[in-house]
């Protein structure tokens, strides 16, 4: 089979590899569509992981083989694949911090080498722990593989929306209207709150409005806090979701979020970046700072419901489709987006 192997920083190599062989409790999935995630791009561009590895984790495909002990799954079934499933019994899991669980972090789907998602390959192997514990999600007949590839990123965004306790009637500022910011706009609206978005690209500001933002502004607008206060009866927004790794966006969030509000870090910042915070902003204004990383097992069926019942329009997020051999070009486009670049999907 063909796979895109990470051979070092910025070195993707399109290689012929053996199809993974199955243990009796494992399942093999032929990858039809895999989403290109910002986290994949970071793993490719920065020295975060020892090579060789095969990344890609927003996977939808067809079961092509099942181990002898696997029950309930057949060759030919269409599935969305979760690359991590928590153990459900460690101290993190018992406190609903599933993404901190060692099992969650260490057991993953793989197409070869150290397990790292493996979606950037023609076939990916799903370990027994993930097969047994709900990591394969059947795709309804009327839903495309493209749509199904959004179950994982929807879960990640949904987890942040839930963590920030976004409620009907609230107003939420979303900094950054790329694929993640746009999905936040859709989810915030679905849960009955109003979304205000910012971005640097005029096309993304327009796109934010077209997917349901109440208002959208240029992030460089010096009057942004005043405009936000005008839209919120002088209060400021209830929640800001930081979907760009920018300290400027964080300081804007402090100016735009109401007393008692929340600021949630969703984008991963460069490790060397430090942000000075006056603790009295947190004390006197009772602003809660929080972070949300990866997905939550608890809301997996809700994420699937949202995608499979088209409660948000994930197709509106898709801008580009690449063949697996052209993954490097896809990464280049994601790093330097054109005016019309949103979600990029890869076709192994
Ligand atoms: Zn992802
Ligand atoms: Zn656990």
TrEMBL record:
Superkingdom of origin organism: Bacteria
Domain Enoyl reductase (ER): 8-346
Keywords: Metal-binding, Oxidoreductase, Zinc
Required cofactor names: Zn(2+)
Protein family according to the UniProt entry: Belongs to the zinc-containing alcohol dehydrogenase family.
PANTHER family found in the cross-reference section: L-THREONINE 3-DEHYDROGENASE (PTHR43401)
Protein's UniProt name: Sorbitol dehydrogenase
Record organism: Brasilonema bromeliae SPC951
The organism's taxonomic lineage, starting at the top: Bacteria, Bacillati, Cyanobacteriota, Cyanophyceae, Nostocales
């Amino acid at each position: 089979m063909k796979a895109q192997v990470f051979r070092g920083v910025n070195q993707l190599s399109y290689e012929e590899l053996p199809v993974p062989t199955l243990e009796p409790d494992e399942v093999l999935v032929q990858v039809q569509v895999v989403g290109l995630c910002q986290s994949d791009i970071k793993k490719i561009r920065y020295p975060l992981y020892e090579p060789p590895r095969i990344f890609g984790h927003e996977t939808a495909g067809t079961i092509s083989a099942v181990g002898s002990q696997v029950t309930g799954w057949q060759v030919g079934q269409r599935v969305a694949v979760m690359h991590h499933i928590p153990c459900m019994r460690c101290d993190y899991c018992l406190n609903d911090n599933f993404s901190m669980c060692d099992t969650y972090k260490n057991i993953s789907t793989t197409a070869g080498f150290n397990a790292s998602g493996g979606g950037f390959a023609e076939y990916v192997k799903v370990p027994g722990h993930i097969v047994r514990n709900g990591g394969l999600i059947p795709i309804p007949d009327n839903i495309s593989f493209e749509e199904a590839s959004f179950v994982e990123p929807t879960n990640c965004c949904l987890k942040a929306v839930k963590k920030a306790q976004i409620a009907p009637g609230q107003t939420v500022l979303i900094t950054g209207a790329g694929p993640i910011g746009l999905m936040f706009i859709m989810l915030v609206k679905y849960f009955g709150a109003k979304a205000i978005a910012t971005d640097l690209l005029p096309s993304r500001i327009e796109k934010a409005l077209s997917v349901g933002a109440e208002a959208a502004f240029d992030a460089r607008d010096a009057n942004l806090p005043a405009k936000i206060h005008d839209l919120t009866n002088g209060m400021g927004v209830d929640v800001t979701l930081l979907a760009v790794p920018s300290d400027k966006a964080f300081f804007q969030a402090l100016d735009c979020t109401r007393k008692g509000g929340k600021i949630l870090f969703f984008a991963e910042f460069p490790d060397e970046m430090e942000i000075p915070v006056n603790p009295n902003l947190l004390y006197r204004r009772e602003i809660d700072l929080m972070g949300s990383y990866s997905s939550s097992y608890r809301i997996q069926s809700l994420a699937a419901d949202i995608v499979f019942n088209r409660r948000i329009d994930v197709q509106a997020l898709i801008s580009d489709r690449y063949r697996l051999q052209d993954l490097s070009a896809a990464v280049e486009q994601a790093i330097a987006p054109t005016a019309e670049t949103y979600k990029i999907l890869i076709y192994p």
